[in-house]
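Researcher: Structure for this, please.
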Amino acid sequence: MAVVTKTGNAYPVAGALQNVSARVAESEATVFASFVDMAVGDSIGSLLYFGRVPSSALIHPASRVYNQALGAAVTLRLGFYKPNGGVVLSNNALTPTLLDMNTADLSGLGKPLNGLTVLLMHMPAWQLANLSADPGGLLDIVGEIQGAAVGTAGRILMSCMFGDHS
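Model: Predicted structure, token format:
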């Protein structure tokens, strides 16, 4: 077994999002669908980089995670990680948790971001990430394998919809 770091096919997000400061003030809806293929033995602590969102983005509640069965005790925690390449935002919990799920529960079905409650939906990504001020730039959305090592090879896909309110 090995701890691995993998990147999804939409990480980093397409070039149009790289120049956040040039975006217009009106919100534009953006969607990325990013998948990561998991291998047998990918261990607890493995990081899955799904994509990036502007720090000012509002994450839409229609965002979902889909997966194939990866093993009975495998869990996935999804959150923000290393804004602008800086320090980890609570590696232990990927604070805040956008999603906490047992991958065996939803094989093939989409799971909404259960950490994105009604009380949090109006907050831009930087506030969801528990930052005291908007750092500008992009925040990584990262999943962390927890619970057990991957027992069955499979794919995890994140479909993320957000509006940039910069």
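Researcher: Any notable elements?
Model: Confidence is low (pLDDT under 50) at residues 14-25, 90-95. Residues 5-10+28-161 form a domain with the Jelly Rolls fold (CATH 2.60.120).
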